[in-house]
Amino acid sequence: MQYTIKQLADLVGISTRTLRYYDQINLLKPATISEAGYRLYGPQQVQRLRQIMTYRALDFSLADIATILTKKPDQLTADLNQQLLHLQHQAQQLQLTIEAVQQQILINQGVSQMTDQEQFEIFKQQQLATNEKQFGAEVRNKYSEPEIRAANQKYAQLSVEQFTVMQQTEQQLIELLKTTLANSETIIANQATIYQLHKQWLTYTWPNYSTAAHRGLADMYLADERFTSYYDERAGKGATQILRDSIYAATQ
């Protein structure tokens, strides 16, 4: 079956103007042009358009989509499976946030009460959802989906005591970065302790530690200004660079 540009636009719910643009940039060419000069689209074009719309829904740019669609079918499937896992994780986090809001409404109305432990569990889930929203895409560029799920699960299983020690460890790290920034002569002397504190902090969420992964994380801290600002805003400008250098010095 063949479709005119109007029929195809109506079929998938987009504008004819969009289809003309896709033709112009060679993203979706019609199967043929009729004698009257009308664009005609066949089953292959419909399938390709469905793929384009799927990737657009995932916020890929048209340039990226053009590159993606040059991949072999098995690679496309593998990539989409990764995207599916990511979306499922986001859906789970969103559901947990919805439940937390519903619970808070009941508490505000005096209908329900929560124990400290229940509030702590909700807090951890909300923190995971916040981290996913802020840094999910960047983290997935560096780590596999199973690694991310394992780390999130370990964080979700932290006890109040473990979480408290984890927070205290991070605060010790930030204070040491502050004092090191204030006295540059202590940088080399403090590198080992800075590394150990950061490693200890990581082990509360990392199922498996490796120096290579630790170095990779340190590089990401500097590569993305949002990660850089996490330590620079808490310990002072330049703290992230000191942290990265300390990790590298200790893992040579």
TrEMBL record:
Q: Does the keyword NADP apply?
A: no
> SUPFAM superfamilies attached here?
Antibiotic binding domain of TipA-like multidrug resistance regulators (SSF89082), Putative DNA-binding domain (SSF46955)
Any coiled-coil regions, as ranges: 77-104
Keyword Transcription regulation: yes or no? Answer: yes
The HTH merR-type domain sits at 1-71
What are the recorded GO MF terms, alphabetically? DNA binding; DNA-binding transcription factor activity
The record's listing under InterPro entries reads: DNA-bd_dom_put_sf, MerR-type_HTH_dom, MerR_fam, TipA-like_antibiotic-bd, TipAS_dom
This protein's UniProt keywords: Activator, Coiled coil, DNA-binding, Transcription, Transcription regulation
What name is this protein filed under?
MerR family transcriptional regulator
* Organism whose genome encodes this protein: Lentilactobacillus senioris DSM 24302 = JCM 17472
Q: What is the lineage of its organism?
A: Bacteria, Bacillati, Bacillota, Bacilli, Lactobacillales
